[in-house]
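Record minuted for everyone:
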Amino acid sequence: MCRLVIFTGTCTKCGEDQVWEELTQELSCLQAKNNGIFGDCSNGVFQERHEFDQECDQCTEEDEGVGDVGEEAAEDLLAHGKRLAEEEQSNDSRKKAKTKS
C-alpha cells in the first residue's frame, strides 16, 4: 500500500487553514514502484494527516519586509543621499587599457 503523508494546520500569525504542499510526501510501495506510478497498486493509497502549524508564505514575506517595500523606501534612500543600485554607473569607460612595452 502506498502512503500519502499530508501536513495540514493553521498559520501561527493570521490563523488561516493551510495545507503545506511542499511538505507532502508520496511514498510508493514496491508494487507501485515496479509499475512506475504512485498509487498504481492493488491496495491503493493510505492518507496520513499530520498537524503542523507555521507561518504561511504571505505572513513570512510581510515579516521579512518584502510585502511592503516600494517607492517609499527608494525615496527615503535618496533623501539620505544614498544611491540605488540601478543608478550606479559602470566605471568601465574610465579604465585604462593595458599596453605592452
Q: What stands out?
A: The radius of gyration is 27 Å. Residues 2-78 form one domain.
